[in-house]
Specification:
The complex is a heterodimer of chains A (338) and B (605).
Chain A: E1 2-8, E2 10-11, E3 23-24, H1 30-44, E4 52-60, H2 68-81, E5 83-92, H3 96-100, H4 109-121, E6 128-133, H5 140-152, E7 157-162, H6 170-176, H7 185-201, E8 205-208, E9 211-213, H8 220-226, E10 230-234, E11 239-242, E12 245-249, H9 253-261, E13 267-272, H10 275-287, E14 293-294, H11 304-308, E15 312-315, E16 318-321, H12 323-326, H13 329-336
Parallel strand pairs in A: 1-4, 1-10, 2-3, 4-5, 6-7
Antiparallel strand pairs in A: 7-9, 8-9, 11-12, 12-13, 14-16, 15-16
Helix pairs in contact in A: 1-2, 1-9, 5-7, 10-13
Chain B: E1 7-14, H1 20-30, H2 43-47, E2 51-52, E3 55-56, E4 61-68, E5 71-78, H3 87-95, E6 99-105, H4 112-123, E7 127-133, H5 142-153, E8 161-162, H6 171-181, E9 194-203, E10 207-216, E11 218-220, E12 223-227, E13 233-236, E14 238-242, E15 246-248, E16 251-253, E17 257-261, E18 275-278, E19 297-303, H7 309-320, E20 327-333, E21 337-344, H8 347-360, E22 365-367, E23 374-378, E24 381-385, E25 399-412, H9 416-425, E26 429-437, E27 440-448, H10 449-463, E28 469-480, E29 482-489, E30 492-493, E31 499-502, H11 503-520, E32 528-534, E33 537-544, H12 560-575, E34 578-580, E35 583-585, H13 587-594
Parallel strand pairs in B: 1-5, 1-6, 6-7, 7-8
Antiparallel strand pairs in B: 2-3, 4-5, 9-10, 9-18, 10-17, 11-16, 12-13, 12-18, 14-15, 14-17, 19-21, 19-22, 20-21, 23-24, 23-25, 25-27, 25-28, 26-27, 29-30, 29-31, 29-32, 32-33, 34-35
Helix pairs in contact in B: 11-13
The chains are: A alpha/beta (338), B alpha+beta (605).
Chain lengths: 338, 605
């Protein structure tokens, strides 16, 4: 199993909490950037000859800021350069506004419903809804209403993220300055339990810390990350992994463009994982999913306090986090590794 | 050899910042001990920092030559430490003198240290030359201060000298008075040698340098000598005087003051207060007043990193060579690992030792809150307790005694109320109170030393806007209603947080510690109860609620490296925690919880 990730660093506006490699106001670079992506694919592809690609993921940023024809053009290029399986999963992240931009500009829940319907109508058979919870001021009842609205769409996949304050963001600076409140971790934990409970009741499988899906609709691309499979990232700042080597492209879009345009691989840095690093990865990434970690990779006895606290359970020869344990995955992972 | 009739041995005693060092500068100038070219402000203090002729200088005694008419005099100015921690050392320095200049700031008036010092010099039987300083200052009130001093010393007000150490006004007359009023040393150069060790310093090349006052006989530069209290026999290598730099002499005879290098490698072999005699013709009796250093304040010192225990032990062993008052014994703490229970003369001494360990030996230390020595009495049996966690449980003993001090506080009269309130609140009992003048009062209180070492000085300063001064003298042991308060984390006592406090304050202590720890202890996987207990009785309780969230919500986009590094840091932090029962406590929490806001009493000079 292996995947391709394509990073599109453009957004209509910059969200205050987001620390991804994304920029507003660079739309004029779209065509040049798309060409660079295709060129990078051509440069990188020879090294991946003979590797079957099972997933393609357009992420960002907002990939749908690119024209549909541009996205299709990139995908065609990838199909030509790589050995993409016929049943490959292809994913594109979208902002409801960008999906609807060609039709109309409506804000709020209405635009979400319309965009969701449009995606289904266009033939996507697995449409995900991303939700963020635990913003300061959010209450249990408002969050439950959000969940109900989202479920009313009938999505095959739902992601629910606890708001994380990243220091290098406008929100992070407001929190540091004391202007914005810090999300209360206990409130977030309660909201999280509400998700676990209501999505579970609706038949969704909690297959990763922040992800739920109807059986068979799990995101195969993301599972590849958590299972430490090989993937190639294309685009500014995109990350790649293969055989214990992790590397990443230069992050600023202009630097990326310049590297690719002179025919070079735009690699910005790399690391080769030692045994200890590989184990920590295996444990912390594995714990995030329902597959858990092999009991053999945990030094004997380290699991005990977490089993006793009801955060971890043993399933045959593996340790798997409980629903409550999922929200403490960092604590458990650092405790399990020697 | 100088004829005793031409020798005057004296010291200057003053409250901090009343001008002692500046007056010493003028005396050095007036006696041409230092040329104008070499002269710097606070000359003797600065010499401490320097090395000259291979000897680490400490200007504990300086020899001044003064010509008065046709007569030439040798004046030995002997330094006295100014801090209550070193009262015994002060008493030995005073024993080397026949007289003292009592110096009082004409603007500040008499302060607590003035009073304490005056009582010491009077008890030592020294001739007192009273002087007020800084008469040139606009805010000086020479008449009022001279009247206060005259009243204290019991002399007519016109016998109080008025000087400005800064300008030199009145200093020649003061020096003249020292010669007239301070008696020459008694003692017989023909008798068996008896020389008092009144101070010492440690030089890494030459070993211990003792400062001596020859009382009887003659101290040769060569020959075997004996320290009478410790029994050390050694070879004299060099005798000399400070003028003000060290200069060797042929011998030091009765009445003279100087230094002796005698190949002593450890201050414990040549302690302050000991008597030096000749090994071949020993004196029949040592000079009176020798005392072993008595630690008054105890604290556990632990290496911040557990592995540094051996380094700490080596550092203490080295430090002990130059600090005769430092005592220590190994101890172990469930919470802090292996360390040492150390005894100090007082808080200043404790701070000095801790700072030297950290600076000279590059150690990072955790110090437990300082405590006094407790005497637990059962029948005829007395158990000495230096560590609160070793205090037996109530019911297993008859009574507990703790050390008391007589504290002297001098305060502007308007703050008398708050001062008395503070002393009462700290379990004090009033001994004496009187007015130095209508504006200023002196108060004497019997107080537990434990209250003083807590934060008494800070409280006193804040209640009197910095105007009150404090000094104290050790009194002895008295019975108190003391109990041990333990702090429990999830049911397990944290020995480092145990304290012995008065029963009336036990709950308050327990509550404070519990509240403080609630802020400091990170959330765990389970609710952590923080309890304070006297025996089995819980007197305070707080809870650190179980942690419910610790996860990176979003973990894709392929950047696994950054997330892994976050977790690696988290894992490293976990590894540095200390485990108390089932609870992980970061080292910083121990340090913060043990930090008590307090400052040592009195001045530094």
């Amino acid at each position: 199993m292996s995947g391709l990730y394509v990073h599109v660093p453009f957004c209509l506006t910059r969200c205050g909490y987001c620390d991804f490699n994304a920029y507003a106001g660079l739309g004029h670079l779209a065509d040049r950037y798309a060409s660079a992506l295709r060129r990078e694919a051509a440069i990188a592809a020879p090294a991946w000859r003979g590797v079957r690609v099972d997933t393609v993921f357009f992420g960002g940023g907002t990939p749908t800021t690119l024209a549909p024809s541009t996205l299709v053009g990139i995908l065609s290029e990838l199909k030509e350069r790589f050995e993409i399986a016929p049943d490959a999963e292809v994913t594109v992240e979208a902002n409801p506004e960008t999906v609807l931009a060609a039709l109309e500009r409506v804000h709020g829940a209405g635009s979400v419903r319309r965009a969701f319907a449009a995606a289904g109508g266009a033939g996507f058979d697995n449409v995900n809804v991303d939700l963020i919870f635990g913003t300061p001021g959010e209450t249990m009842s408002s969050w439950r209403r959000t969940l109900e609205e989202a479920l009313a769409l009938g999505p095959a996949h739902v992601s629910c993220y606890a708001l994380t304050v990243e220091p290098a963001t406008p929100l992070g600076r407001r929190v540091a300055a004391g202007v914005s409140a810090t999300p209360d971790p206990d409130v977030q934990a309660e909201l999280y339990e509400a998700v676990v409970e209501s999505l579970g009741a609706e038949g969704y499988v909690h297959y990763e810390v922040s992800n739920w899906a109807r059986p068979g609709f799990e995101c195969r691309h993301n599972l590849g990350y958590w299972r430490r499979e090989a993937y190639l990232g294309l685009g500014a700042g995109a990350h790649s992994h293969r055989d214990g080597r992790r590397w990443w492209n230069v992050r600023p879009p202009m630097a990326y463009l310049e590297e690719v345009e002179r025919g070079a691989l735009p690699t910005g840095g790399e690391e080769r994982l030692g045994a200890g690093e590989a184990t920590l990865e295996e444990v912390f990434l594995g714990l995030r999913t329902r597959t858990g970690v092999p009991a053999a990779s945990v030094p004997a006895g380290r699991e005990e306090p977490y089993m006793a606290a009801g955060l971890l359970s043993r399933r045959e020869d593996r340790f798997v986090l409980t629903d409550r344990g999922m929200f403490l995955a960092g604590e458990v992972a650092t405790g399990l590794v020697g | 050899m100088t004829e005793p009739a031409r020798i005057r041995n004296f010291c200057i005693v003053a409250h901090i910042d009343h001008g002692k060092s500046t007056l010493a500068d003028r005396l050095l100038e007036l006696t041409h001990a230092v040329s104008a070219r070499e002269m710097r402000e606070q000359f003797l203090d600065r010499m401490d920092l320097e090395r000259e002729r291979g000897i680490t200088i400490k200007a504990a005694a300086v020899r001044l030559l003064f010509e008065r008419g046709d007569d030439a005099y040798v004046l030995n100015l002997i330094d006295t430490p100014g801090h209550v921690d070193f009262t015994y050392e002060v008493s030995r320095s005073l024993a080397a003198c026949e007289g003292a200049i009592l110096l009082v700031d004409a603007a500040q008036g008499i302060e607590a240290q003035t009073l304490a010092n005056y009582h010491l010099i009077r008890d030592a039987g020294l001739a007192v030359v009273a002087a007020i300083n800084k008469i040139d200052l606009p805010q000086a009130d020479p008449d009022r201060t001279a009247a206060e001093v005259a009243e204290l010393v019991g002399v007519p007000v016109d016998q109080v000298h008025r000087v400005s150490a800064k300008t030199g006004a009145g200093v020649p007359e003061l020096l003249d008075a020292v010669i007239r009023r301070v008696p020459p040393p008694k003692g017989n150069a023909e008798d068996a040698l008896r020389a008092l060790v009144f101070d010492s310093t440690y030089d890494s090349y030459r070993g211990v340098i003792t400062y001596v006052r020859v009382v009887d006989g003659t101290l040769p530069t060569r020959g075997r000598i004996r320290f009478m209290a410790t029994g050390t026999v050694t070879e004299a290598e060099e005798a000399g005087v400070f003028a003000p730099g060290p200069s060797p002499v042929q011998e030091l005879s009765a009445g003279e003051v100087g230094y002796l290098v005698a190949g002593v490698k450890d201050v414990h072999q040549a302690k302050v207060g000991d008597t030096i005699t000749l090994a071949a013709q020993p004196a029949a009796q040592a000079l009176p007043g020798y005392r072993e250093p008595k630690p008054m304040v105890w604290s556990g010192l632990y290496p911040a990193e557990g592995g540094d225990y051996a380094d700490l032990r080596d550092a203490l062993d080295r430090l002990r060579l130059s600090d005769a008052a430092l005592v220590y014994e190994p101890e172990s703490s469930l919470a802090l690992g292996f360390g040492f229970r150390c005894g100090f003369l007082g808080l200043l001494h404790m701070d000095i030792v801790k700072e030297r360990l950290e600076r000279e030996f590059d150690l990072e230390l955790i110090a437990t809150a300082p405590n006094v020595e407790f005497h637990v009495i059962r029948g005829d049996e007395v158990t000495v307790v230096h560590n609160p966690s070793e205090m037996p449980v109530p019911g297993t003993y008859d009574r507990v005694e703790e050390p008391f001090v007589v504290a002297t506080v001098v305060t502007p009269s308007e703050y008398l109320g708050p001062v008395l309130e503070l002393c009462q609140a700290r379990r004090g009992s009033l001994v004496d109170m009187r007015y130095l003048s209508p504006e200023r009062a002196e108060v004497h209180y019997l107080l537990p030393l434990a209250e003083i070492i807590f934060d008494f000085f800070d409280q006193l300063k804040s209640r009197t806007r910095g105007y009150a001064s404090l000094d104290y003298d050790h009194w002895g042991y008295e019975e108190s209603d003391l109990v041990r308060v333990d702090v429990l984390l999830h049911g397990d006592a944290v020995d480092a947080f145990s304290a012995v406090v008065h029963r009336d304050k036990a709950q308050q202590y327990g509550r404070q510690m519990a509240e403080r720890l609630r802020e400091l202890i990170p959330r765990q996987l389970f609710d952590v109860a923080i309890q304070a207990a006297i025996g089995n009785r819980i007197v305070a309780r707080e809870t650190v609620k179980a942690k419910r969230k610790d996860v990176l919500a979003k973990c894709y986009g392929g950047d696994i490296t950054r997330k892994r590094k976050l977790l690696e840091r988290q894992k490293a932090g976990k590894a540095r925690m200390r485990r108390v029962g089932r609870v992980d406590v970061p080292q910083e929490a121990f340090i913060a919880a043990l930090r008590v806001d307090r400052r040592s009493a009195g001045g530094s000079k």
